[in-house]
Amino acid sequence: xxxxxxxxxxxxxxxxxxxxxxxxxxxxxxxxxxxxxxxxxxxxxxxxxxxxxxxxxxxxxxxxxxxxxxxxxxxxxxxxxxxxxxxxxxxxxxxxxxxxxxxxxxxxxxxxxxxxxxxxxxxxxxxxxxxxx
Length: 133
Fold this sequence. Notes:
single chain, alpha/beta, 5 helices, 5-stranded mixed β-sheet, globular
């Protein structure tokens, strides 16, 4: 996995953005996000079941005060506001993560990331840390 992360880091950012914007397979994108965050943050994440959606695409296995220390959500959806809202509505009924990482294949401005972070805080107030990328 570390080799994959190193490979992705070695690519020019416009090429990485082009690859992500053209991705069409949800499961492959979720796995990419999982592997990148495991390598970059030194955490272990497990993919969740694709047959029963509880709003989580991957979860950490580390000790937690909440239901999970880290929950990863990933989306290819171009209607990011609607998708985040739907994902968080489902997630808030099943999970109390300490940290939520939400990955989008879309190019997001800093303002959009701040807006989505505020949306996360509104629906998951117990989450101590949220990261939107």
